[in-house]
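Lecture 7 notes: from sequence to structure.
We start with the chain below.
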Amino acid sequence: MFSIKQKPIARARNRPLPTLFDPVKVGAIDAPNRIFMSPLTRCRSTMAHVPTPIMGEYYAQRASAGVIISEATGISQEGLGTPFAPGIWNEEQTEAWKPVVEQVHEAGGRIICQLWHMGRIVHPDFLNGEKPVSSSATTAPGHVRTYQGKKAYEEARPLRADEMPRLLDDYAWATENAKKAGFDGVQLHAANGYLIDQFIRSGTNQRDDDYGGGIENRIRLLGEVTRRLVETWDSDHVAVRLSPNGDSQGADDATPNETFTAAAKLLDSIGIAFLELREPPVHGTYGNTDVPAVSPHIRPAIETPLVLNSDYFYDNASEALAKNRADAISFGRTFMTNPDLPARFKAGAELNPIDFTPTWYSQGAEGYTDYPAMEEAKLGAA
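Predicted structure tokens for the same chain:
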């Protein structure tokens, strides 16, 4: 366990710098601050991937975020291979999301739904024994947790070109359901080695058709899905997440600067509310990566609002905004353990410990809704 003490960052003399506490407009959302909550898998749904009431309490506790990006939410059974993760492809799931979103709104917050297809990361146990789909016939490294226990990943089958319309329909249907549930928008999960990322990266995309080979072809599916989401809702209600640097669940790319800058330019040309990049720094709190940041190449190439994520705390987040590296910062583990994170930042208060507990991914309140807010922590210490 460790706790974090923060120090204020000085403003440049005679020059107003954007701060974490300044409002920012991202598409249709007028965010009251630039402290966003990043998507965080928490595994509190049912075995049928239906959201549960405790999820409303959890998200409402964190409603002071400028924008909450929901945990990754499956667009179809084919695309969801995490036990107790939520889906949004059927009526029962959609109806169960409604009170969750309503609680966030009643608490004054804004929440968008992250749309997830895991591709080759889905184990056949979730698919009645059928193979998962991916860009190519590849196998993710390591093991995955299923309802039957921990198992090795299995080889995926390539998604056929004639299946692309069906995939686009799945994304569009999930978007329609997110609108019905009352979300303030959607975010396409195109990061972290999942399906869209498996198409983008040269290490996992071995195709020789219109969806493989050069960068333009490898980012084709990203563009098609994004356009379909924009057509289904509109550009002000659609965001995208990419993870441009380093290996992610066995997915890597030979030319990340070129690949992900091209992807960002494509998204910019389509028009989206904001682009979020999960980009761990070279020397991060949770481990190091030897891969340089790609965001400095992306930032000047687009006009779309940019949100950076991973290993940010008050000091380096403030610096990123002050140096115009981003328009907002999304926080993950710090928001998990500090439900009132903006207030703690504002007060210069010490943060709750980031304890890496197994209960983060269990099905109860422990390690989920029981982290104290600042005033509660003071009372507990009295």
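Points to note: Confidence is low (pLDDT under 50) at residues 1-5, 7-14. The chain has twelve helices and 16 strands.
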